[in-house]
Design brief:
The protein contains 9 helices and 22 strands. By secondary structure, the chain is an alpha+beta fold. Strand 16 and strand 17 form a beta hairpin. Helix 1 packs antiparallel against helix 2. Keywords: Membrane, Transmembrane, Transmembrane helix.
Length: 397
């Protein structure tokens, strides 16, 4: 608990002290009308402020996103009565309070400055406080903790409450459109794999969200009682429908490596091929699960900046269909092996613009939700609360 006087409060205290000194010198009778009311108001400010209950802060969910996107950060403040307050929230490294300035600069630009969002408001019952942040750089980022400073009605005394609740958001790497040889090579590889996997019919089954429309058996679907869709299952060799990407980089090129791999993974996502990843000692097996794509991006987001990555083993390189290597400020992409090997600098393959951000996962679910990883939902001592007052809203700026 931090109870202090405001500048107005210090001014009142100075007037009281000066008046007492003058009264001691010249007699108090003429100064009583000034000193007594000010002293009562100052003491009342202390009493009222000290008797106020500690507010409760509850962090609200926040979705993960890509570099360059913006997200709304929000938390609810619950109080037992009306109170004037200044609400502040901390923004971790890699996140920037979204203002007109941040909208006119590229992500990660040196011109983007970080501000601590704050607002003066009246807390009454449950107040929802919101502000927008720009996702400036990849990684696991933190929002919070919040600080609430309440004051008496005359603005003489303040009391500051600090909270430990925070929430996390994963910022995925930038994703670019691919152009030229790599994009063509990836699609040729996907088409060849798809053709080889569609040579032997196995059975029909009900359509599930996320299935490719090219697998729909339209004649069989037309005979269904409620026009339900059915898709064709093929007897496929699992080794033919997977691609493993192996990646490594030297110190200082982690962002470039993450961007290159994320762009390739996103391009392959449009095909029916399952993608696996080997990077920095982490192995993600190929999968077709709805959240698998974001699992791959989360691994890339977590690469530690300035630490480089673990070197790939000869086995990792031999087992990977695509190898991405970042050395001496350049990122190269290698597809195939032996005589069929193609090595292309990523700079020649990256489009001039960022790729449209991917939508929700194939099963209709959202991206990984950072709000579910919020730490603490109560008043700082681990206890939660439910608001019963009217819900208001405030915007931090």
């Amino acid at each position: 608990m931090h109870v202090t006087l405001t500048r107005r409060g210090w001014a009142v205290l100075a007037i009281i002290c000066l008046s007492v000194a003058m009264g001691w010198q010249y007699g108090p009778r003429s100064l009583n009308a000034v000193v007594a009311p000010l002293l009562v108001i100052l003491l009342a400010g202390f009493v009222v402020t000290l008797r106020l209950d500690r507010p409760t802060v509850r962090r609200l969910p926040m979705d993960d996103g890509f570099v360059g996107e913006a997200r709304e950060a929000a938390f609810a403040v619950e109080t037992t009565g009306d109170v004037a307050a200044t609400v502040r929230d901390e923004i971790g490294t890699g996140l920037v309070l979204e203002t007109d300035e941040t909208r006119t600069h590229a992500p990660g630009s040196e011109s983007m400055t970080t501000h601590t969002p704050a607002t003066e408001t009246i807390l009454d019952g449950e107040t929802r406080v919101t502000y927008n942040v720009a996702l400036a750089s990849r990684g696991d980022r933190t929002i919070g903790p919040a600080t609430i400073t309440i004051r008496d009605v005359f603005g003489l005394v303040t009391r500051r409450f600090e909270f430990s609740e925070t929430s996390s958001v994963t910022v995925y790497p930038q994703v670019y459109e691919l152009q030229g040889a790599l994009d063509k090579r990836l699609h040729e590889f996907a088409d060849a794999t798809a053709r080889r996997n569609r040579e032997e019919f196995d059975h029909l089954r009900e359509y599930r969200r996320g299935d490719s429309l090219r697998d729909v058996h339209w004649k069989a679907a037309a005979k269904q009682p409620e026009d339900d869709l059915v898709v064709t299952e093929y007897a496929a060799d699992a080794s033919l429908e997977t691609v493993t990407i192996a990646a490594e980089c030297v110190t200082g090129l982690e962002d470039e490596l993450a961007t290159a791999v994320a762009s390739i993974v996103t391009a392959l996502r449009e095909t029916s091929i399952r993608v696996g990843l080997v990077v920095d000692g982490t192995v993600v097996q190929p999968s077709s699960d709805a959240g698998h794509y974001y699992e791959l991006l989360a691994v890339l987001a977590a690469l530690e900046t300035g630490a480089g990555t673990a070197a790939l083993t000869d086995r990792d390189r031999g087992d990977a269909e695509i190898r991405v290597t970042a050395r001496t400020r350049a990122v190269s992409v290698v597809i195939g092996e032996g005589e069929a090997e193609h090595e292309i600098p990523f700079e020649r393959l990256r489009g001039a613009s960022e790729r449209a951000r991917p939508g929700p996962a194939a099963d209709g679910g959202n991206r990984r939700n950072a709000g579910q990883r919020a730490t603490g939902t109560g008043d700082g001592d681990g206890t939660g609360g439910t608001g019963t007052g009217t819900q208001r809203s405030g915007v931090l700026t």
